[in-house]
Write a structure and sequence with these properties.
five-stranded antiparallel β-sheet, 17 strands, alpha+beta, Immunoglobulin-like, about 20% strand, six-stranded mixed β-sheet, elongated, Aminopeptidase, about 475 residues, about 35% helix, binds zinc ion
Length: about 475
């Protein structure tokens, strides 16, 4: 599987350029506030484009991770090189595979202060979305990785990405699971794996579907590193020396990074209210995980046979561990169904707990039938019919929410085409309502005008009396 090494030759050019740059521009380096790591007087950063050669990485959705990581890593390299007093290296500059150990050994050979391993993600069932940073489970590298991870993921969140947290994972031996982190932490060399986004999920695809997007990620990685190290750049005109970092620990793992191997502890749903005519259903959701953040939820209307795509858990903040332990889920139940609702709560490690189920005691009615019936009976009542028409929009969508907690995407429910006669009917209702509104407004205006005139008259009279000499 692994190709021959060749990274030293490839990296040689960059090394030479950096050395030249440093010789020409001697520097003084700044310190970010609260940074736990001591980097001495020379700062060396190594960037590792993940995969390479026969090791393609993920190939979902027509992507090829090994090429994506190279674009991002080169952009990160170029951007970081614009900062004063930093030596930057790449573990590979050509399409070769290196073992994890080789990547770490290269970083150690140049005395790296930090190793950044660049990756893109995909999930088995194409359900996951968002960015995450993996760090060693062990001090001191854990707390250092957490400080950097907060910088990077905070910026990713502002860009609109969902944040899955700064995480750790242990192998069977009880050591770090990921080789890059294992070998680095053995050398007390801080390292992180950056999983920028999921290439196989609709919500993330727009963040990685062009070369410019991949470069943008690289520049963001560089800026996060610059903030983390408190760097200055005379070229860019920025100075991060006073930049404040997240609180972290050098002596013990940061609690929010600790691997959670148990599913959420509590997950319950309870009926708040429902309307069998419109299909509106409001449920109260209560859930808790005592070890990690709740990231997503999904729901089933068919008793657990199928589930909706995952939605962001309200208030989820994987960097602090915060999430809302209760929220109202508003759904639109498809007409002529009698749903059994179940909700799944997913934690920071993608383990889930299913709620109790709620089965509707009645079948939801068909708003179009109701509309037709009420339309014949009371033609002219615009408001009632209008409401029914709105809620019937979700009729053909199995999983329709009426409220978007995550503020995220609007895909999924296909717009249903309405028959022309129905549209015409709606238009007539609308025109009738508008006409009534206009008549109402005009009459109000006339009434207000005459009130004003009367008031003016009164003022005139009282003014006359005030002006009487005392
Ligand atoms: Zn990868």
């Amino acid at each position: 599987m692994r190709g021959k090494t060749g990274f030293r030759k490839g990296a040689g050019f960059f090394t030479l350029m950096t050395a030249l740059f440093l010789a020409l521009f001697p520097f003084s380096r700044a310190e970010a506030a609260g940074r736990l790591q001591d980097t001495g007087d020379k700062l060396v950063i190594v960037i590792d484009p993940g995969h390479g050669g026969d090791n393609l990485g993920t190939t979902e959705n027509g992507h090829e991770e090994k090429s994506m990581t190279m674009v991002t890593a080169l952009a990160m390299y170029e951007e970081l090189s614009l900062y004063d007093g930093v030596e930057v290296y790449l573990t590979r500059t050509s399409d070769v595979d290196l073992s994890r150990k080789e990547r770490v050994e290269f970083a150690a050979s140049v005395d790296a202060d930090f190793l950044f391993s660049i990756h893109y993600n995909a999930s088995e069932n194409h359900e996951l979305y968002g960015a995450e940073v993996w760090t060693s489970a062990f001090a001191p590298c854990n707390g250092i990785g957490y400080q950097f991870g907060c910088e990077l993921l905070g910026a990713f969140r502002e860009k609109g990405l969902f944040i899955r947290g700064v995480k750790t994972r242990l192998g069977d031996s009880g050591k770090d699971y990921y080789g890059i982190l294992l070998y680095s932490s053995e050398k007390k060399m801080p390292a992180v794996i950056i999983e920028h986004c999921h290439v196989d999920e609709a919500r993330d695809e727009g963040f990685c579907d062009s070369e410019e997007e991949l470069k943008e990620f690289g520049r963001m990685d560089a800026t996060a590193a610059a903030r983390y190290f408190g760097l200055k750049s005379s070229v860019l005109g920025v100075d991060y020396s006073d930049h404040e970092l997240a609180e972290s620990s050098i002596s013990a793992p940061v609690p929010v990074t600790v691997q959670d191997s148990t599913a959420p502890d509590v997950c319950q749903i309870e009926l708040l209210e429902t309307d069998y005519d419109t299909g509106r259903l409001a449920l109260s959701v209560t859930a808790a995980d005592y070890d990690s953040t709740l990231l997503y939820y999904s729901f089933s209307l068919d008793g657990g046979k199928t589930f909706s795509p995952r939605e962001a858990w309200p208030g989820s903040d994987a960097l602090t561990g915060a999430y809302s332990d209760t929220f109202t889920l508003n759904l639109t139940v498809p007409a002529l169904t009698c749903p059994t609702v179940i909700l799944r709560a997913y934690n920071g490690y993608d383990l889930y707990t299913e709620s109790n189920s709620w089965t509707s005691p009645e079948t939801y009615r068909d708003p179009e039938e109701l509309l037709a019936a009420s339309g014949k009976a009371e033609m002219g009542d615009g408001t009632e019919n209008g409401q029914n028409a709105v809620s019937s929009e979700g009729k053909d969508s199995a999983y329709e929410r009426t409220e978007d907690f995550a503020g995220g995407r609007g895909d999924g429910a296909e717009e249903q085409e309405r028959p022309v006669s129905f549209l015409t009917f709606l238009a007539i209702c609308l025109i009738a309502a508008l006409t009534l509104l206009v008549i109402f407004l005009v009459s109000q205006a006339i009434a207000a005008g005459s009130r004003k005139r009367a008031a003016r008259q009164r003022r005139k009279e009282s003014g006359r009396s005030r002006n009487q000499p005392r």
